[in-house]
Every structure is written in C-alpha cells, then in structure tokens.
Amino acid sequence: MSSAQIGYSSDQLAGFTIGVTADRRSDDLIAALVRRGAEVLHAPTLRIVPAGEDDRLIADTHAVIEARPDIVLATTSYGFNGWMDAADAAGLGPHLLEVLAGARILVRGPKARGAVRAAGLSEQGSGAEETTASLVDLVLDRGVDQQTVAMQLHGYVDQDQLDRLTEAGARLLTVAPYRWADPPDPRQVDRLIEAIVGRQLDVVTFTSAPAAEALLQAAERADQLSGLLAALAGDVLPIAVGTVTAAPLRRVGLNPVHPDRFRLGALVRTVCEQLEARVLHACTAVGSIELRGRRVVIAGAADHGVLLSPTGAMILKILINAEGGVVSKERLRELLPGVSDDHGLEVAIGRLRGSLGVSGMITTVVRRGYRLG
C-alpha cells in the first residue's frame, strides 16, 4: 500500500484493536479509527474538569487584572478559551482582555495561537517545539528579571518550568482553567489494563502526559505494572501524540512512537502506518496468508477475511513468526495467556482451525508441537 493511501482506506485498520486513553476529543479520535475499520476499547484514565466559575479561578483572574502582567503565556487553546469563558461569565471579560492586550503574549504552539487570535488578541512569539519547556526557553532568552509573568496552566503542572521562571527573577502568576480528576469509570481502566497485559490490543494511544501517567499508576495499584510494561515493550505498541505525552512512558523504559506533528490527525496517520508495518505474511499449503491484527486474509480461489479470537490470532502470529519451524507445546503455553496445559492448547488449536475453515494450514508435529503447513 502506498504512503498516499495509508490511513484513508475504509478497511485499513480492520482486524486491529486499539486502546484509547483520551477524555477530551476522544469522540473525534475514536470516530477516525472506527471509520478505518478498527475495533476500539475506550478507557479514559483521567477526565478533564473545567474550573468554570470556580472561586480560585476567579480570584486568580482578578489577580492578573490587578497586576497587569508584562508577559502572558498561553499554553493550550482549550485552557485559554476556558479562561476567557469563565472571565466573561464572572463579568471580568472586558477587563481581562484590556490587560492582556497590553501584555506581550507568547504561545506554546499553533492551537494556543489560534485561541489568542480568536479572542481578538495577537501574540509576539511561540515555542519552537510546542512544549512548555520550549516556551519557557523563549521567555528566558528575552529576559524576565523583575517582570510580571501570567501563565495559563494546562492541567498538568510542570513545576520545573515554573521554578525556572521564578529563579530567573519573574513575579509569577498562574491561572488553571481546568484540572484533571479521577476517571469516569475506573472499572473500564481495569479492563484496559487486562487487555494490554493479555495482548488483546495492537496499539494503545495517548494524547496527554497525565493520562499516560495515570495508566501506569492504575496498573501499579492493580499489581499489573510489570505485565503492562512487558506488553507495551513488545506486542502492544504505545503511540503518543507528541514528545511531552510520551515522557512518562519513556521514564519507565518504554519507547513510544509519536508523529512529527503533534496533532490528532497526525496521530491517526501514525497508527495506520505503524500497524501496516506490523502486518504479517506467510506462504502455506493452502496459499498465501496475511494476518492483520485479528483478521487473517487467505488467498485462494477467492480472497476472504476471517476475524479470529485474540487467542487464535496470537497462535497464528507465533506460527508465522516461526517461518515454517515447529513451535513446541511448551513454548506456546508460555506465550498464550490462560492456556496452562496441553488439553487447553489442543482446544485453542482446534478452535483456530475451525475459524480458518481450511484444512492443512496448521500441522501437528507428533510429540513436538505445531507449525504452518
């Protein structure tokens, strides 16, 4: 499949199962994946709670208006828009806009820039890498000693960056238009962890660093962290929307993939490209086969696709990777969750053969194991 086609075919992701940890904009992400044929397990590991007319947010807004800051840092479009909405609801909108118009506004990236401009304001610079750290780099390069800096936070407080500003001599004010709260359904998070550990997913997507951190913490509480990390380092691919989101995963030794552009559309495209690269091919006695997640396409008199069970797909994947070699029963039992004895393995092999609907693809090697025919 050409790169121009990747991510745009209606069956591009058919057979693949993808975990989605996002809360905000999860509907957009899920719709994009489902349109391409994927099965999705949605388990928000955190939820975003807008501060609205929260007393703390209003008090912080009053403080910004009274301080008339020299520099204003806008980090996210969602947060900046939420701040403007809350100020309007409290009757502070015109006063806040007047103060912001007199400040030097710097933004973290294009989305924050769009929110600033939508409010009728203009920015004077942006971070080079669309991260809070690069935004602070920009501020420090221009100097902040004895200047008042107002920073719109984005739910995930990076204390190191705040410390950099104050240590450089800035008088720092912060505003938090939203906060992170516990997930709406903790049981769904548990199901996500079980699916990852059981290798029932092909990819898990992450769109925020707090959500990634929350998944790791939930796995640790469930005494499943080692199993989760092993799966995410092997069969289940973690894909983050950007470098900041990937950071908590990298800290625990994982190597998540992320697109060059930190956008939802780029994330979907990366999922498509990465899963296309994981499609397995083999030649068997019944013809060539292609394994796409849980969907096997058998080329014979007519091509047809069969959706396998998670265990069946895992068995076929192991046999394909053996490249015609025999895989012992002991090795299969080690690799298959929930299969603990020869009888259970024989049942699983029998079900796989039945699902495939063709004879001769999987061969029993007496007293040794199984291989592709």
UniProtKB/TrEMBL annotation:
Position of the signal peptide: none
Example of a GO MF term: DNA binding
Pfam families with a match to the protein in the record: HEM4, Trans_reg_C
Keywords, sorted A to Z: DNA-binding, Lyase
Keyword DNA-binding applies: yes
Major enzyme class: lyase
Domain OmpR/PhoB-type: from-to ranges: 303-372
The protein's Enzyme Commission number: 4.2.1.75
GO biological process per UniProt: phosphorelay signal transduction system; regulation of DNA-templated transcription; uroporphyrinogen III biosynthetic process
PANTHER family: BLR5956 PROTEIN (PTHR40082:SF1)
Protein name: Uroporphyrinogen-III synthase
Organism, scientific name: Microlunatus elymi
